[in-house]
Queue: 3 jobs
Job 1
Amino acid sequence: MPDISLDIPASGTNRKFLKKFLLIPAFLCLAVLVAYLAGVVYYQSHFFEGTNVYGTDVSKMKVEDFEKGLADYSLTIVQKDVNGNAFEETLSSSDLGISVSSTDELTKILKEQNAWKWPLKHNAVYAGRPTFITCDSEKVEEAVNSLRNMQKGEFINPKNAYLSDYKKGKGYEVVSEVNGNRLKKKALIEAVEDMVTSLGSSLDCDEAGLYKKPRVLSDNKRLNRLADRLNKYTSTNIKYEFGDNTEVLDGDIINKWISVKKGKISIDKTKISDFVASLRKKYDTIFRSREFKTSYGKTITITGGDYGWWMNTGEEEKELFKLIRKGEQGSRTPCYYQTADRYGTPDYGDTYVEVNLTEQHVFLYKDGELVLETDCVSGNSARGFDTPAGVYGITYKQRDATLNGENYSTPVSYWMPFNMNIGLHDANWRSSFGGQIYRTSGSHGCVNLPPDAARRIYDVVQAGTPVICYH
């Protein structure tokens, strides 16, 4: 490096200039020192730049400035309207009654500062929550009560998911819950107080879980199992076919028999009984009068007898209850004590035995064709053993039976009872049949037949074949 030299004249003027020139750095150093010392003094009572106390920037603040600054504090409450749209409301410091209970904690933080280090960069952060911020509980409650979500007409209560009523073609459905926007007041007050004492700036009610929630949601297993069971029951589709008539039992009927109480399903068995009783009343033919066209061409009304459809309602009710619980589908024949030849009119069909008690004559029809007719002898009228009129069914048939009664025991070859101990049978001890024999020399109630006629009838009839007796 080349040598540099200053040739300063040693005149008096130059000496003054040099003196002034040398004083400038001294003044600058003094100014810096004064500024530094002033900073030391300043930061004895003020927080360093970049100091954050419990979330609040207190740079260059005095302790009393912090307290005064609380007057500008505000808390934003984020809510949602009845349509689920978010909106905000702001509560001020005065709304909440905020105050500082003690400045000791702030003073301690301030004293911990090393004021001599003020020129250095500081990013002091004091985390946690202050213990010196308080709020007025009564004012907080009043402020909460003033919020829009707390006003009548501005909130919807939550609703649990539930089962719909039965809908034709759809059955039962789980109706989704309604969340609503009803705030939990007590929890909201606590949350506001907590937010204020920690100097929080915003409270989102939804995120904080401050809205009341439905207890039962649409994915509730118990609720869905209940819907499945109900839909299983109402999926039942049973078709009863009574000849040309059809009666259908399906969900549109069954749902009215079902009730749900405390999560338990009940099927009203009295409704099942009523349904079965309606079928019995409509389609049973036992003990009912019938129109009958005799072999003589005359149409008469016959009453009496126990022939016809006779539903076993007790058993049918039990079976129907089981079928509903299984959700069965398909055609069904009811349980019967006894059946007839066919549904509709006439129920006795076209294979039957016709007994004209007045004419003492018997006709045998098979598939609508007259295959036999013969005279007979019925019950003794003089002794009160008249053969009862009515429509009956052959109970059973038996070869070589012995008929026992009071003071008699009679063997027969063809026995066909139709009314308890009254029946058709051969009477080989008689030499004649028909006419007026029955009036004084009739049977104990049975229809006596010539042996060959009895045999031929025996060969045609089966258990259940109608026997139609009339005068």
Job 2
Amino acid sequence: MAYGSPFTSSEQVFLWIESFTNYEKIPSSRPFRLDRMEAMAELAGHPEKCAPVIHVAGSKGKGSVSTIIASLLQRSGLSTGRYLSPHVSDYRERIGLADRFFEEDIYCAAGEELRQIVEKAPVAYPQFFDPTRGNGEAPTFFELCTLLFFLCCRRAQVDIMVVEVGMGGRLDATNIVNPLVSVITPIELEHTAYLGNTIAAIAGEKAGIIKKGKPVVLAPQQAEALSVFQSIAQERQAPLYYLPDMVEVKEIHISPRGTQWTWKVKEGETSHLWPENLRAHPQNLSIPLIGEIQAWNTLQALAALYRIFPDTEWTALLSELSSLSLPARFERIHEDPEVILDGAHTPRSIKLCLTTFCTLYGEGNILLFGCAADKDVESMANILAPHFREIILTRPGNFKKSDLPRMEEAFRKSGGSFKTLEETDAAINLAIHKAHEKGKALLVCGSFYLAAEARRYFLGAPLGDPDKGKR
């Protein structure tokens, strides 16, 4: 691969990275291999070691937990790199600081470093990267994004990094780090073609981020997942902190402006983790993220931070996060009519999203739904269909393959009344037109890719033109 002109913008860097195989878009039967990532990190001089790491995995909520942790660290005065996926509107959402993107010169310089590494890789490690040698192939999109993040953090001289796993954990490209603490959010069936088709198998993959002797903070889990985590933590002599054993949560209240709840520390072996002033009596907390799950996400973030930095008043800093937000995580993008975007794409996350939506806006509203072909659309349709007056089905953009006939059959069997518009823009515009006309709230869900299309539409186009998208 020959060098091109020097990068002059982050957009150029990401366009170049896009030219590599993206398994977020194209399913692969290729086994994932961590040794490829380790080889590139070696060529780069191990930028993953430039600062301490907090590593976050899970099926649901890991983006929220990562964002809360990174935001609190930043508020404490630590320059904090944050790695998330997927992005919704801008690749820099994946790779940045806790409260802003890196400067453009950081992306460009790190991109040049990355391009040199890609040039050297087939020569230094032909068994991994030389396409003419057996299983050799060029680096993947996610491998390059991950290494770019570490290179950016090294150039920006961050104090600490919060790294969200892309998929699984054991063989994920991020798992070259040796974290201060591992954090694992709730597990459910997902990516079964890659991770296994049982909760236990998927938990085993997620548990791959548990490192010898390093603490792990665990969210509420199904029994079979919990058993796997307990066994692996014991095997690796990793202290395990299980959140339901640590805290009691009650009186959760959600509103369009966030989540408030009361909680208290449970007496037991882990109560010493919390400062004495928090152990004395029940505490009230709030966060601008919407949904009951955000109470647990926040407490898990706090537990991880108190475990590694016990002398900082993390709960006090939480009150300073009044502007905290996450694109397409129950994002209230418009108020009249109310429009909620959520990237929920598994049965459990759809159920959580629906519960929050109906709590705020009641039944009989408008649903715009589209999901990728590899998702459990039948279960999601059964959960969603009884609660909406009108349902519009569409493709979740063109990034991933979808199956509209299967979507239609799933909603037909669930008894839902629906209309299908294959063109995403037309479907979005019809949905907002109906919500505006009938004075109803609109929920857009099923895919981060659909949420990304809707977000671009709502932020950049007049609302309520039913012919837009058809011209």
Job 3
Amino acid sequence: MFICKRLSWLLFTGLAIVGCKVPKLTEQNANIALPKTYDTLQDSLSSANLKWQQFFTDPYLVRLIDTAIRNNQELQITLQEIEIARNEARIKNSQIFPSVGVKVGVGLEKVGRYTSQGAGDASTDMTEGKPVPDPLADFGIMANANWEVDIWKKLHDAKKAALSRYLATIEGRNFVLTNLIAEVANTYYELLALDSQLGIVRENVKIQTDALRVVKAQKDAGRTNELAVKKFNAEVLKTSSMEFDIRQQIVETENRLNLLLGRYPKTIERNRADFTGLSPLAVKNGIPSQLLANRPDIQQAEQELKAAKLDVKVARAEFYPSLGISAGLGLQAFKPSYLFTLPESMLYAIAGDLATPIINRGAIKAEFANANARQIQALYNYERTVLNAYLEVANRLSSISNLEKAYDLKSQQVNVLSQSIEISNDLFRSAHADYFEVLMTQRDALEAKLELIETKKNQLMATVNVYKALGGGWK
């Protein structure tokens, strides 16, 4: 009872010293008022709720994504970050409870006879006729406990902050997973597009080679000149060189995909069907408010904001006195046989202390200001993440619509130019068109076909990017 009264008096005194000088908490709420819809699109269902195995239907792509999830090094790094954050939370949690330790000791002491302790020992008998041993042994078993009483919730807030950071690392892992799945899918579609472009180039080389033979025959018949032959020959060589450029791009793209899969160069098994026949995946955009629950980066930013707010409370608690309690209980004797002779060999101690900052308050103020600044940083980062998520979805949805229209027009362009090749060849044979018109028609047709493949690739990638932007892939 006496100790409790004394601690209460010390606590009251400490509060009187520092209470009037503690800065106030200033909290600012995040502005995340999202629009109700994406432009004019309204759909309560969101593809983000689909598992990636349900969203992607190509079996080759599904196997690649599964391999990447198991082997990708960056994803494995995030798992270790989660483990580190989990251990940090455990450390903060353990600081709330008393620390208890046990010590077993053995010692031997010889003091000078002509000292106060030596003279006293020499004139003292432990029992009748048995003086104090010299040298004097010391055997002891001691249990010690130390505890910082969490009066101001400082340790509890630090624990909550560590837990929020742990949850933030989990969301960070989910965000990496979402990006990984999207990157594997986009690279896969890029590889399919290169395969299709390679086939178009090879086909065009055959067409141009046939045209070169016609020009040579025309030249032999005296209906054209050597310049036309050279021009056609140069065009064949130019298109042939494109084949090797595309081959190199295929090698690099395969290796980029192998890197995502966490393995050394290996041929990527893939769909060899007609690329232009692939249909973009159907995507349901949902409503903007669903982003708050579906986007891992938003969840991560929110947890980091919670942790930053708790850090401010922890820093503010440093201005108040800290109450510590220490206690010890043990057995001690100069002879092992006396060690368990109770109560003579028992010793114990208990103490409480109240420490309050006085000289170093400037440093505490600076740390509090830093914690408050980091809280504001986390707040703006959260707002920016939400804004970026909405804009990203809006841009991707717009991209899907515009690419669909562009693909239709480019398909018509390819059909017209393919017909123009036959017309120009017929006109050239009948001397109603010169070789330049034939060359330009073939060149325009090749460019249009390659652009059509590029647009199809962008269409497929756009649906993947919308799925990622909505927060799909990690569930």
